[in-house]
Structures are given as structure tokens and as C-alpha cells.
Amino acid sequence: MQSGTFTPDNLIAGDYPRVTEQLAIPVGVLKRGTIVTRAGTAYVAEGGNAFAVLAEDADASGGAVVAPIYLSGHFARAHLILANNAAISDADWDALRVLNIYVKDTVPAA
Hints:
By secondary structure, the protein is mainly beta. It has one domain (20-103): Head decoration protein D (Virus Head Decoration Protein, Chain: A), CATH 2.40.300.10. It has one helix at 90-98, and strands spanning 20-25, 28-30, 35-37, 50-54, 58-60, 65-70, 73-76, 101-104. It is globular, with a radius of gyration of 14 Å. The model has no long low-confidence stretch (mean pLDDT 87).
């Protein structure tokens, strides 16, 4: 029997149902919480087409990998990642909401 460790990262910010799927990540290293496109690349604010939120870290530096994604859910704004650490506009948040990806600001535990 294998055992692992769990380190909470506060990505999940609510109870909205999370629908998961798999997506090919063609190249690069992406962290959990990265907003990705259907092509498996990090979303570029106001220039790409957001598709999902990466559910686990993905290392495709040695070739394409398949990684789990969230197609829907409620996530903490501070824990979502964009390409090149870009800022995301209100229009981007609106586009995510259409995909049933909801974002809110959260208050860290004291």
C-alpha cells in the first residue's frame, strides 16, 4: 500500500461542482492552478482562449504528457496562474464564468 502527503494550496474556493477531464500538455512545465487553453498551453490574458484549470502540476519538458484538468469549479483568484504571470482583466473573468469557472477573492486563515 502506498501512502502520500497532501499539502493544501487553497486553489479550490467553493462548492461549485468540479468536472474533471484529461488534456495533453505539449511542452513546458505548468503548475497546478494554471489556466490552460484547449491546446494545452498556458492562457495568455486577453489574447487566448481559456479552456480549463490545471488540476495537477504537469512537466512536459521531456515531451508531451497528459494531465488532469478542471473544466468547471470555484477557484481562488490568488492561486490561479496565467502565462508569463500576466494580470487578468475583468473581461477574462467574464469569459471564465461562461465556462463555469468561477473565481473569487479569498481571505487567508489567521
